[in-house]
Amino acid sequence: MRPIHRWAVVAGVFVLLALAPMAGRAIPAHDRSLSAGQLLSLVRDGYTAPYSGTVEASGRLGLPFNDRFTDLADLLGGQTRLRVWWRGPDDWRVDRLLDTGEVDLFHHQDVTTQWDYERDEASVGPDPEIRLPRDSDLLPPRLAALLLAGADGSDGSSGSQDESQVSRLGARRIAGRDGLGLRLRVDDPRSSIDHVDLWADASTGTVLAIDVYGAGSVPVLTSAFTSFDSARPTFDVTRFRAPAGVRQHFEPLLDFADAANQYAPLTPPETLAGLARSNRKGRGVGAYGTGPTRLVAIPLQQRDAAVLTDQLYNSGATMRHGQSLLRAGPLGIMLTAIHSPFEFQWLLTGTVTDDTLRRAAAGLARGSSYR
What is the model's pTM? Predict the structure, then answer.
């Protein structure tokens, strides 16, 4: 074989390698004749299924936060690349891939370890009942479990205005797998989410991709696997082993929401704006609602509330009767007015309408108590 022919063979191999991923995407998706209710059941069965792979998530919620809220703003308002090994709800690892390194979460039972590669630092702490969103919450199966809670498998023929119904979408090829499409249509008038589209692995029910829509035609939050393996990861890959020189410390409080839930002297009422409280009674933070209609009430000391008020004001929040209200797509953010004798203000946030936030603020003024 002459040299030019040898180089032609090499070039051909590189072309084939480059085209292989494209060929996988070009394979048409194979759908299954499942009803929407049957697919919903398959998705729910897939919540505990094992998997591993890589995920790309994109948020379009332009949150005005900085300082203690910076990670939250980045998580919901930018691009996030994740690598995951999921053995089950009590045994998993999620790495956030950065340009200069990575930040890894290792979770076992009720303990989570966060390893910051750049800082050579690892923090270990309990997984609290109430916390801010974190990297693992952006995984498609986790988002689906959150948003489909309470969803009805009917086609809407019951006529209830408070149910969220599901319908079928066409299949898609995602990460080399057949993804069966499902749409959740939100009918609760208190919710600011219009609908949720997702595609689940035809074999396991694991959600491979999910798009969340507010009032517009562009999703405000998307998350999808770019590679996927349904085999159970090995036991050792989810175990954290501190490299030499890494500082480890115990962190009893995960974030300010966890701190407020444990130690704030106030407790909110059992219902707000017609939404029932979903977390334990008597705690400082109140979580309300389910599925795509969720609301959280967090008590803030006045010095912390003042900082947040400035950030909201500088971002164009509406100021009315001592309340600050900002809308970031389907996410509403409100700081209530100061009510004597409390030396706290309430941070209200969630996927609810402005009217629901105002009703919740009125409920806090009437029903909050010392604990």
Answer: 0.87
CB proximity list for 207: less than 8 A, separation 6 or greater: 43, 46, 140, 141, 143, 144, 198, 199, 200, 201
CA dist 278 and 299 (Å) reads 17
Checking if the pLDDT of 13 tops 90, the result is: no
Q: How far, CA to CA in Å, does 238 sit from each of 131, 189, 204, 348, 349?
A: 22, 42, 21, 35, 33
Instruction: Evaluate whether 149 touches 291 at the Cβ level (below 8 Å).
Output: yes
Estimate to the nearest angstrom the gap between the alpha carbon of 272 and the chain centroid. 23
Whether residue 231 is found in the same domain as residue 270: no
The rounded distance, in Å, linking the Cα atoms of 153 and 1 is: 64
Tokens at 236, concatenated: 């050792």
Per residue in 132-172, pLDDT (tens digit) is: 889 999 999 999 999 999 898 765 444 443 445 899 999 99
Q: Work out the number of other CB atoms within 10 angstroms of the CB of residue 123.
A: 16
CA distance 257 to 238: 27
Contact 197, 129 (CB under 8 A): no
Q: Which two tokens stand for residue 127?
A: 């997984």
318: domain CATH number?
3.30.200
pLDDT tens digit sequence for 265-296: 999 999 999 999 999 988 999 999 999 999 99
Say yes or no to pLDDT of 1 above 80.
no
Helix (H, G, I), strand (E, B) or coil at 167: strand
Q: How many domains does the chain have?
A: 2
Specify the amino acid at residue 284.
Answer: G
Parent domain of 73:
25-250
The pLDDT, as a whole number, for residue 247 is 83
Phi, psi of 27 (to 5 degrees): -65, 125
Examine the domain organization and report whether 200 and 291 are in the same domain: no
The alpha carbon torsion through 33, 38, 41, 45 (nearest 10 deg) reads -30
Residue 244's pLDDT band (cuts 50, 70, 90)? confident
Helix intervals (H) in 27-129? 36-45, 70-77
3 state SS for 257-321: HHHHHHHCCEECCCEECCEEECCCCCCCCEEEEECCEEEEEEEEEHHHHHHHHHHHHHCCCEEEC
